[in-house]
Design brief:
- The chain is an alpha+beta fold.
- The protein has one domain: 2-Layer Sandwich (Double Stranded RNA Binding Domain), CATH 3.30.160.100.
- Helix content is 48%, strand content 34%.
- It contains two helices and four strands; from the N terminus they run βαβββα.
- The protein has a four-stranded mixed beta sheet, covered by helices on one side.
- Strand 3 and strand 4 form a beta hairpin.
- Helix 1 packs parallel to helix 2.
- The termini are far apart.
């Protein structure tokens, strides 16, 4: 998985980049075919905004969150992406499961 981190209006320290990479690696357990992730971290006055775009095979997901500190913004945006990945994964399983169930039904008859 290729990770690209961009910051605007502030400089993220190495700890923040490591934290973000560790959190992104955990998304692999929900969907293993993630190709690349682009994260944009922005500071505007008193708030931080985290935008993350995830590209996988035949799929692209995006999420955006804001909070008063950068760690909270990153946690919130990754939670959103996690929910999107789970929903997508469940749709794929349901779709394939339905097709498999129909084939099994035809074989029984």
């Amino acid at each position: 998985m290729q990770v690209s981190i961009t910051t605007r209006h502030f400089e993220a320290d190495e700890q923040m980049k490591i934290y973000l990479n560790e959190k992104l690696e955990k998304l692999q357990k929900y969907f293993s075919k993630i190709v690349s992730v682009r994260a944009i971290l922005i500071k505007e006055n008193y708030r931080y905004i985290a935008e993350v775009t995830l590209s996988a095979k035949n799929m692209q997901l995006a999420a955006k969150e804001e909070a008063e500190d950068i760690h909270s913004a990153v946690d919130l945006v990754l939670h959103k992406l996690e929910k999107q990945l789970l929903k997508t994964r469940d749709k794929v399983k349901e779709h394939k499961g339905r097709k498999l169930a129909e084939n099994m039904k035809d074989e029984v008859e």
